[in-house]
Design brief:
The protein starts with a strand and ends with a helix. The chain contains 11 helices and 13 strands. It is of the alpha/beta class. The structure holds UDP-4-deoxy-4-formamido-beta-L-arabinopyranose. UDP-4-deoxy-4-formamido-beta-L-arabinopyranose binds next to helix 7 and strand 8.
Length: 343
């Protein structure tokens, strides 16, 4: 493969796993990240897994001048996978202008550079959050999008629209939006994983930090949902399965297999799990008893969502393969390694 794949946000959780899968598929990767929510040591751990340390530039893509300068110095980029964004749901409610400015302006700067430097292909990290609480389950790619529950979720929806409109206006561009359900777990090497700064918002890192004794107890948000055990349902997908889907999406574009200029795919397992099922699954997979308490619902949470994965399975030839307990164990192995906890 000639030419480099640019991974924005490549030192982040899903970005770093995708860099590994791209390298293992034989691609030459360059990473840009502003390191606002990840550490540069991730690059060394990527190298320990794949044998190659990706090239790296520290850039905030919301800075148009620096972004253009980067592209003016890298003429061999053939595709972009765009992860870089502010992504904390709760924080986005507090500082929406930062979220809109950072996430939208970064994307528009990238698209400007794609047009200026002739880079046709972009894969975008979108989210099932664009569906809000669907009226009908499971969710397909034609399930209507709803008003997002947060400014963060809305930036995903708006960026999809920006991509759609830009690709329509400039046919030399081609893009794929991948709508993730709930990414969890870590690389089997336990060398890369999810490392939230501060108190984790997401369920699985909170579980692993509780198991590690960093958090006193897990709060289960809500037990009065219309679900088998009353706790909310999500479609939890292994991060390595998710990363592999990005390689397939890039290859779809590079080999002109895309059927439309702009395409959207749901990336989930097709199975929904309740919060309490995740808790029990973690305890079973790890043998660690979790200290948890059921409390009120978290404002802004939807009740239940899981994916219809038919389109991605058939059109991309991709399927989530790693089971839930293996995934939860991988999250625990990662937590133990970074906290220096022995077996
Ligand atoms: C999952 C379930 C919580 C924490 C968000 C974003 C989505 C994506 C993933 C970035 C819910 C419950 C959680 C806790 C709990 N983010 N929970 N106790 O809210 O489905 O999705 O994160 O790409 O875009 O919207 O994920 O992990 O926060 O919550 O009971 O301490 O776990 O109520 O039912 P969510 P989550």
């Amino acid at each position: 493969m000639t030419g480099k794949i640019l991974v924005t946000g490549g030192t982040g959780y899903i970005g770093s796993h995708t860099v590994v899968e791209l390298q293992e598929a034989g691609y030459d990767v360059i990473v840009v990240d502003d390191l606002s929510n990840s550490g540069i040591d991730v690059l060394d751990n990527i190298a320990k897994i794949s044998g190659t340390k990706p090239a790296f530039s520290k850039i905030n893509l919301a800075d148009g001048v620096k972004t253009d300068n980067f592209f003016s110095r890298h003429h061999d980029i053939v595709a972009i996978i765009h992860f870089a964004a502010s992504k904390a749901v709760g924080e986005s409610v507090q500082i929406p202008l930062h979220y809109y400015r950072n996430n939208l302006v970064s994307t528009m700067n990238l698209l400007d550079c794609q047009l200026k430097y002739g880079i046709a292909n972009i894969v975008f990290s979108s989210s099932c959050t664009v569906y809000g609480q669907p009226d009908k389950l499971p969710v397909t790619e034609s399930t209507p999008r709803k008003d997002a529950e947060s400014p963060y979720g809305n930036t995903k929806r708006v960026i999809e629209d920006i991509l759609r409109d830009a690709i329509h206006a400039y046919p030399q561009l081609r893009g794929i939006a991948l709508r993730y359900f709930n990414p969890i777990g870590a690389h089997p090497s336990a060398l890369i994983g999810e490392l939230p700064l501060g108190v984790p918002q997401n369920l699985v890192p909170f579980i692993t930090q509780t198991a590690a004794g960093i958090r006193n107890e897990l709060k289960v948000f809500g037990s009065d949902y219309d679900t088998p055990d009353g706790s909310a349902i999500r479609d939890y997908i292994n991060v390595v399965d998710l990363a592999k889907a990005h390689v397939i999406a890039i290859e779809r574009l590079l080999h002109n297999r895309n059927k439309e200029g702009f395409e959207v795919f749901n990336l989930g397992t097709g199975n929904g799990s309740t919060v309490l099922e995740i808790v029990r699954g973690f305890e079973k997979a790890t043998g660690v008893k979790l200290n948890y308490k059921i409390v009120d619902r978290r404002p802004g949470d939807i009740e239940k969502i899981w994916a219809d994965t038919t389109y991605a399975n058939e059109e991309l030839g991709w399927k989530a393969r790693i089971g839930l307990e293996e995934t939860l164990l991988s999250a625990w192995n990662w937590e133990k390694r970074i906290r220096g906890i022995g077996d």
